[in-house]
Amino acid sequence: MAASKLFQPTKIGDLKLEHRVVLAPLTRFRGTAEHVHTDLGVEHYRQRASSPGTLLITEGTFITGKAGGYAHVPSIETDEQLAAWKKVTDAVHEKKSFIFAQLWALGRTADPKVLESEGFELVGPSDIPAAGKSTPRPLTTEEVKEYVQFYAKAADNAVHRAGFDGIELHSANGYLLNQFLHETVNNRTDEYGGSIENRVRFVLEVLEASVKAVGASKVGIRFSPWEFFNDIRINDPIPLYTHLVTRIREQFPDLAYIHVTEPRVSGDTPRDPKGESNDFIRAIWSPRPLISAGGYGRDLAIEWADTKGDIIAFGRHFIANPDLPRRLKENIPLNAYDRSTFYSPLSPKGYIDYPFADESKL
C-alpha cells in the first residue's frame, strides 16, 4: 500500500508535497470574540503539520467584518488578526509543511443577531432566504464589486502579511460565492444574475482579483456541485459547473488547484450519492491538481488517489489524528473522533488533545 500515489510526492502550485493527504478546511469556533485566533490554533495546526510536506487548509476565515456573522470564527483583516495568523503559519513552516487560508463570506447563511451585534446587516445575492432563515438584503451591483476587492485584500493580507503559502476561495456549501452561482438563490437582474454566464461572473471576478493580488499558483477554489447543505441544491449542476470550470481552465490554467466535495456527504452528514459524480469536473480540469473531500477512509483514499489521481482532503479523521499522514502510510489504527467537541468555542478539548501514535512527537 505504501507504493500508492497517496503516499508519493506531488505538486500544488510551486509547492512540493511529500504525499497527497491534505487537512480539509474545518470550522472549529476557536477564535476570540474579536475574531482573533489564539495559541490553541497555533498548537492545532502545528500538530497537524507534523509530517513534513503536508498541505493544511485552514478553517473558513472571514475576509472582512461585514462578510462574517458567526461568533468565534477568525478573520484576516486587522493587524491583531494577521499577527495571530502569522504565529500559525510560522509554526507550520517550522515543521516544513504548508498552509493555505480558506477565505470565507457567509452571505445569507449568517446569524443576523451576530451581525447586528457587530454593526452589520444580513445580505445575499437576492432576497431569497435559506429554509428557516431570515431574509437577506440583496447586495447592490456596487457592493458586489466591493466584495471582489474584499477578497483581493484578504488574499494579499494572507500571503504577504500573515505568511500563508496561498489561499482557497470558499465557493461551496451554500456560502456567498456559491449563492451567486445557483439560480435557486440568485434571482438578480443585473450583470450578476440570470444566465449561467452572468451567475459565474462574481466568482470569476473574485478569482481574477485574487490571482492579481498573489499569483495563480497561490490560489485554489472549492466547489460543492451536489450539495444540499444550507438549502443550496440545484437539480442539474453539470451545465453550470462545466461552464465555470472550463472558464477557469481557460483564464487561470496555472491555478493551484480546484477542490471539490464529493456527493457522499452533505455538509458533514453522509448520504447516498445515487450515481452523482464529480468526474465531469475531473475530465475538464485534468491533469491539473484536484483535491477531493468527503467520506474518505484509508482504503477509499488509496483507491481514488491511484485511479483518479486525486489529492485527498480529510476532515474528521484529521481532527482526531494529528499525525494522520503517518498513520495512513503505516496503517496505524486511527483515534476515534468525538463529534460533540467539533464546535466548542475556545475549548482545547477535541482540538489539541488527541494523541499521536508516537507521543514523543508532541
TrEMBL record:
One of its GO terms (molecular function) is FMN binding. Residues 5-335 form the NADH:flavin oxidoreductase/NADH oxidase N-terminal domain. PANTHER family: NADH OXIDOREDUCTASE-RELATED, NADPH DEHYDROGENASE 2-RELATED. This is NADH:flavin oxidoreductase/NADH oxidase N-terminal domain-containing protein. It comes from Cerrena zonata. The lineage of its organism: Eukaryota, Fungi, Dikarya, Basidiomycota, Agaricomycotina.
